């Protein structure tokens, strides 16, 4: 009997193609007559385009198109604000903005053609910081508007009354920097117009349907004239949702040339064209009783979305309010402002605004714990929201494993023994730090629908084809869907084939964001499989004459329930064929949709937006070199409450990857932006951690079995990135007594803080 | 641009080609020969996604020219499996969770081949050091290192 894959380490179902080099990514596609595209970007953060001379480029043999803003549709694209053109027209607003696109018969010719384009720019004064952009009298970066891209303000309870009850009030400001997503596959698209005049797009994307919607709007085409197919996607981390221009430019070139066009970013172009995470300055004021109970919380955020705001309105929203739901709070106030600047745009990034605020909040709790003479773990426990609670913003917490997460972390890192080793004398000092986090599993605010549809077709050999529009970008969505269908239909997982998302054939789907795919897609898969199973049992009953309730599905066959060894009535292959070959028959095909019973928040931002909430905690041990200021993470343990681990191998993989991404953000990765220009847009100067720079990671799983999750599961790909930076900052403080509030924690900052501490100690 | 005639042996098969002097080995493999398992990730020799073996040495094919490989055997990810039978390193990356998005995987697998040829039973630290020419953004490396331990065990026993 084949065992259910649910809960077992299950290798990725598409891994074979990946290890043999046969997985096809967009940049691997080669179509007959395919052209190669290249993009010329603005070197100026703000300039007027006086004139573009493309004549020499167009005259170069092999060049098929040289497009400028004048060739692009008038439509503007964007998420909340439609404000961006496929190619800039008249004005450029950031260094890196796409100005000219070329398609040629080879990559080399396209590159040579770019060098023949001359653009006469009139540089204009640029606004590089939110402070400058929001100053009185500052010029609007977009016509007819001031530079506030978005603003959020709310108060619940009475913050004043809360602070009046507090025994300790602490206020501090934290700054968080932009992180480049750093997926190994740069953005890539192949586009062509087929013989029927339809635009076909193969893209590296997290959402084929959002991609289609955006292509339709930006190219002024009916949605039905466009087909988007997801190719194997080499990582996304939020960067491949809807905010880059790559697929729009490829599609425009295909429409203009009538030939297939491939546009693959090189790494520098990807640094310039992709959105990095949202830099925020957060001021946090907390009031606590002497026991550590939080009685008031006030948050002020100033965020910089760059030249175009994309998804950052939503990102800032998360920073401003999500962390409030982790705790039993009565009094909160938040004011957040998002500012445009003449800098490269920011956007969605794994954790989606949670990382920024949780760095501030967990640093703050650590600081206040010390002032109150408490263990920060005790403060986390005392304030933690509990299963069955409704949070201050109306979130209904059906499960939380945070207490167990804290237990696992403190035990793994030997918290009690290692915390507060004040007697260290040597050059290298060690410390431990901890942080806690919460995340959503789905999000109704995307558009008042958070559903997912799965179609199951049973082939004549009794094996299943599964259609879902939810994208696998490496996190394992296809494996998750395969596990669910295999489990429900009692088939070996090898008998399940998940078809890659394709807007022509897949059911509509929002895509991979907000940790929603296991929640919504998982539920839809369960429903679809059970529907298929019901039809199989009904057909078997009809054909065999047995009563339906005497039949069951075991090990890929319909069997008699009561028979000692489960006498087979019919196997699935036979039933699949019999489902077709009869009067009124058809291939067995079912569709099921699951939309969570969540609520769009109201005008006051109140409402249960997700069906479940995942939690995580992390403890790290760091070593600080007091002579160089270098911080090294020597041990890390992340404990993830993912509800139910369908696939521990994948959960640990997600957790480990998130952990290193968080270590990178906290310690190594920093975009150097000077006068609005990214100066280190390559992997030599923007340093991703290598295997020898990080420790072997340990992680634990807590199964809180959410009552609303599929088999109890919640999202598990984002939560683990949330606590890392604060855990490290807290460990640095534990090691050497300095508090870094300005990320990243560079050796320079640590040394400066150590010197300042020494001066203060001697004063 | 001058063109050159080169003769190489790709995954055991002799290949003769004319290439412009400036053609990178990675572009030659991918665009001229259709061996797209070798990936382009950074074009500056940092990420290692384009790693191949040239005459038994691990080479970043985005940093070498096709003409430099003239007369030498080149082994790419496509040549590693024996027909339908995967190489033990490939098996171990699959079963150990040593891959997620898969884009860096061919490079890591080739780097592992080079490592295990030189050092059949590496320690964890030796593996971590040996991989510092390859970037992965998905796995955090831990399951890659574990996969390589399993592969070493499978290939070379205890």
TrEMBL record, chain A:
Coiled coil: none
One family name in Pfam for this protein: MoCoBD_2
Annotated SUPFAM superfamilies: CO dehydrogenase molybdoprotein N-domain-like, Molybdenum cofactor-binding domain
Protein name: Xanthine dehydrogenase family protein molybdopterin-binding subunit
Biological source species: Billgrantia campisalis
Alphabetical list of InterPro entries matching this protein: Ald_Oxase/Xan_DH_a/b (IPR000674), Ald_Oxase/Xan_DH_a/b_sf (IPR036856), Ald_Oxase/xanthine_DH-like (IPR016208), AldOxase/xan_DH_MoCoBD1 (IPR008274), AldOxase/xan_DH_MoCoBD2 (IPR046867), AldOxase/xan_DH_Mopterin-bd_sf (IPR037165)
Positions of the Aldehyde oxidase/xanthine dehydrogenase a/b hammerhead domain: 20-125
Cross-referenced SMART domains: Ald_Xan_dh_C
Domain of life: Bacteria
Automatic annotation (TrEMBL), chain B:
Sorted UniProt keywords: 2Fe-2S, Iron, Iron-sulfur, Metal-binding, Oxidoreductase
Record flagged with keyword Endoplasmic reticulum: no
Domain 2Fe-2S ferredoxin-type, first and last residues per copy: 4-80
Pfam family, one: Fer2
InterPro entries reported in the protein's UniProt record: 2Fe-2S-bd, 2Fe-2S-bd_dom_sf, 2Fe-2S_ferredoxin-like_sf, 2Fe-2S_ferredoxin-type, 2Fe2S_fd_BS, Beta-grasp_dom_sf, Diverse_Oxidoreductases
Stretches of the chain forming a coiled coil according to its record: none
Lineage top rank: taxon: Bacteria
Gene3D superfamilies (alphabetical): 3.10.20.30, [2Fe-2S]-binding domain
Protein name (database record): (2Fe-2S)-binding protein
